[in-house]
From TrEMBL:
InterPro entries: BACURD1-3, BTB/POZ_dom, SKP1/BTB/POZ_sf, T1-type_BTB
Compositional bias segments (type: Polar residues): 269-279
Pfam family, one: BTB_2
Pathway in which this enzyme or protein is active: Protein modification; protein ubiquitination
Domain BTB: 21-89
Predominant place of localization: nucleus
Region (Disordered): 269-301
Annotated compartments: Nucleus
Native source species: Dendroctonus ponderosae (Mountain pine beetle)
Name of the protein in its database record: BTB domain-containing protein
Gene label: 109545512
Length: 301
């Protein structure tokens, strides 16, 4: 229970209680229910109001009355709880939130609102999605290790890394890989870090997936095929495999490693230690033929 000291006939009280104690707030007709700990978490006017240093007005039902507009008070509470909050889209709402932040002396939130308003005045906008372009191996390692709690997907594209001619469908498939990467980066930009690599020479087109700062799997989209007496480079776009690995990498959003049984259940191929690798269609066909021959020889013996 929090302690109250009432003044005669005025309805004014001083609030002082345990941080876990809940209080009822009526802010301009907008009702809120929160703890004293939240209200006193930061050095603001609300801390002064709910730590016994200031008198507050209350009604006969125990609601603490604050004579301000309650439109943005929920946003203020969320900022006090988390230390950050998403700002309104419109300049008008941001200006209103700024006024409330100033009234309650929430300086950090007021500063964020001011910066957002200045950006909008200058016509600046924060991008929805940002995809770093890798320029060195050291830069890649730094980006992935610094965001180890966030999964990462890198697309390696190097159209000029080729000593054989391409098949007729390779250029179209190369574009499909780029389009799929752009689509996924828009869908999952808040949950996954996307990187594009155009300087590596190891492959022509390859998807690499990272979890907890380490490589988890990859999908190589190129192979060598034979036509008469010449070799050709074949580029594929295995969308199903890429979607599968993208969903698997989301399991690394948590700090703990994903459950291996869950990884196997969500994969068409058994994952070993959370890692899966893919071979080209030709290699899969050859391995299938070898298994058939092995089974046939064992049956005849």
């Amino acid at each position: 229970m929090f302690e109250t000291e009432s003044s005669t006939m005025s309805g004014k009280t001083t609030i002082k209680g345990n941080p876990s104690q809940y209080v009822k707030l009526n802010v301009g007709g907008s009702l809120h229910y929160t703890t004293i700990g939240t209200l006193t978490k930061h050095d603001t006017m609300l801390r002064a109001m709910f730590s016994g240093r200031m008198e507050v007005l209350s009604d006969s039902d125990g609601w603490i009355l604050i004579d301000r507009c309650g439109k943005h008070f929920g946003t203020l509470l969320n900022f006090l709880r988390d230390g950050s909050v998403s700002l309104p889209e419109s300049s008008r709402d941001t200006a209103e939130l700024l006024a409330e932040a100033k009234y309650y002396c929430i300086e950090e939130l007021a500063e964020s609102c001011n910066k957002a308003l200045h950006k909008k005045e200058r016509g600046e906008h924060d991008p929805i999605c940002m995809v770093p372009l890798i320029t060195s191996l050291k830069e890649e390692e730094t980006l992935i290790s610094s965001n180890s709690t966030k999964p990462a997907i890198k697309l390696l594209i190097n159209r000029h890394n080729n000593k054989y001619s391409y098949t007729s469908t390779s250029d179209d498939n190369l574009l499909k890989n780029i389009e799929l990467f752009d689509k996924l980066s828009l869908w999952y930009s808040n949950r996954v870090m996307f990187l594009k690599d155009v300087i590596s020479t190891g492959e022509i087109c390859c998807w690499i997936f990272y979890g907890h700062g380490k490589k988890v799997s990859e999908v190589c989209c190129t192979s060598i095929v034979y036509a008469t007496d010449k070799k050709h480079t074949k580029v594929e776009c295995p969308e199903a495999r890429i979607y599968e690995e993208t969903l698997n990498i989301l399991l690394y959003e948590n700090r703990n490693a994903p459950n291996q049984e869950l990884m196997q259940a969500t994969s068409t191929r058994a994952a070993v230690s959370g890692m899966s690798s893919y071979t080209s269609d030709e290699e899969e066909e050859r391995s299938g033929i070898e298994r058939l021959r092995s089974n046939k020889s064992s049956n005849t013996s």
